[in-house]
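User: Let's play a game. I give you a shape written as tokens, and you guess the letters that built it. Ready? Here's round one.
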């Protein structure tokens, strides 16, 4: 499958998510060469999962949280690494600003409709479960003893 065919598949599948009343997708669209899929979350504001068709891979990315404060970084990073042991497709990483992001790359030849479903599902789960936990660890005020 070439890049254009992969883009068409991504567009078709993401439009299907939007049309599905059972899905948590509330918007899809293109921005700066990427396909954005805005997902509804039960734990907070909706969040965007970005898909980008590259020369050999399909890249997936979602923002998790801003750089944690210095006193909390070690624990946030420890939990992030523990999460990475469980993930198959997507992993937590630091971007160039030090923010925590969920990222993954899948070989384009493996990017079919089922794989796209699995990618979105894994991203949605991380946004729904992992993000709130890491945010609490990073930004919750210390309780007085």
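Assistant: Ready! My guess for every position:
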């Amino acid at each position: 499958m070439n890049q254009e065919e992969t883009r068409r598949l991504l567009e078709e599948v993401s439009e299907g998510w939007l049309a599905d009343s059972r899905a948590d997708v509330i918007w899809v669209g293109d921005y700066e060469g990427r396909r954005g899929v805005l997902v509804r979350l039960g734990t907070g504001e909706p969040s965007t999962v970005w898909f980008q068709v590259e020369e050999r891979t399909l890249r997936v990315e979602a923002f998790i949280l801003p750089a944690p404060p210095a006193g909390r970084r070690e624990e946030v990073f420890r939990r992030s690494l523990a999460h990475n042991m469980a993930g198959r497709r997507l992993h937590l990483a630091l971007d160039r600003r030090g923010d925590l992001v969920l990222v993954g790359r899948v070989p384009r030849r493996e990017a079919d409709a089922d794989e796209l479903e699995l990618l979105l599902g894994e991203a949605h789960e991380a946004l729904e479960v992992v993000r709130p936990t890491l945010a609490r660890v990073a930004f919750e005020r210390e309780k007085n003893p």
